[in-house]
């Protein structure tokens, strides 16, 4: 996984078309205020490019828009303030309003929505969930569902022992070779101080790669993480790293799950 | 309201130039009123941003009918989501343009647009986005400055930024088109935008 920072330009240009890439970058933004500020500045610069190509809109558009807003209910202000802990309750509530599909994978959906909303709050610029973005969340959701439902899906679970960070938490991987993906889910991860983060690692014979940061909500849930399972992934591990994550693990894993014996 | 724009910006040369100057920094104020359901504020706001929204969407999508539909959606979305705007995080204009760009790109990447992709790639080969931009840029000081700032980028930075922004290409597609490694494109996009930001004096 390359340095997340380098994606700031592509992100500000809406040039990341891979949902997983973008989600990871948004997770990173949620914990990296400096990066969020950089993205905001780059988005301002990009907006100037947009201003440069202004043209007179079609004559009927104004009336059509004015008619339409008469029928559209405005969103209330965001309930949760930007802060280290996303508040799950209003997020779930809002999510349920927007889609009926959440019933099947309620926790998965709430988790996915929480990531999106947290990133939005940090970004501000992007504080709008368009229908298309919801579609993207659903696409991620479908990937999770596809792995979980695959005929060759196997699981391995473990829990965090000891008295350190994350004690008592459990983690599970579900791996599907036919899908080429694995899904990592966990629960009971305690909230860390703002200076630290949980980070997920993909461990293969040719090295260890970050699979993203884990940001538990107030009740210890984290959204399911989809990980590329091709290329002989052997293990998946969780470490506690400095905020913003590390390029390689700098501490002993608190959780290590063996994918191959799953 | 932060000390976002200490200097008076020239307008875009469009029909609403003098109103834009009056409302500069006032766009944020309008958006706050829009969030409270103020129709009159929304109409004022429409007049200030609709041309830019439609122009940007048209630039990305190329098709006037689709662009009108998407631009309409964007403006309705501005109405719907105004309460989510945080003045400290972005200028109102960037907030609106971000929604517009995202919607346009989403449309480009949707399944129905995918079939046109080869067509778009073919056009791209003969098109020179920067020259096109230059054409429409002569009208005002600010656009002149934009042109100068775009000119200050390296060719690869400029191409990476404009292919992504004006054509809705992903960085992977840009890498393929320009025959350069992915990491290079990512870096050029970021460096290019940073240089643009600094050159334009975007105050954040």
Count of helical stretches of chain A: 7
Averaged pLDDT of chain A, please?
75
Biggest sheet statistics of chain B = none
Order of helices and strands of chain B: HHHHHHHHHHHH
Classified by CATH, the class of the largest domain in chain B is Mainly Alpha
Biggest interface between protein chains, with counts per chain? A-B, 58 and 86 residues
Could you say which structural class the secondary elements and strand pairing of chain A correspond to? Answer: alpha+beta
Query: Largest sheet of chain A, described in full?
Result: 4 strands, antiparallel
- Report mean pLDDT of chain B, rounded to a whole number: 79
CATH-defined superfamily of the largest domain in chain B: RNA polymerase sigma factor, region 2, helix turn helix motif
| Overall number of domains of chain B | 2
Radius of gyration of chain B: 17 Å
Which residues of chain B form runs of ≥5 with pLDDT under 50?
1-24, 122-138
Oligomerization status of the protein chains: heterodimer
The poorly predicted ranges of chain A are 80-131
The side-by-side strand order for the widest beta sheet of chain A comes to: 1-2-3-6
Shape descriptor of chain B: globular
Protein name (chain B): Sigma-70 family RNA polymerase sigma factor
GO molecular function (chain B): DNA binding; sigma factor activity
InterPro entries (chain B): RNA_pol_sigma-70-like, RNA_pol_sigma-70_dom, RNA_pol_sigma70_r2, RNA_pol_sigma70_r4_t2, RNA_pol_sigma_r2, RNA_pol_sigma_r3/r4-like, WH-like_DNA-bd_sf
Family (chain B): Belongs to the sigma-70 factor family. ECF subfamily.
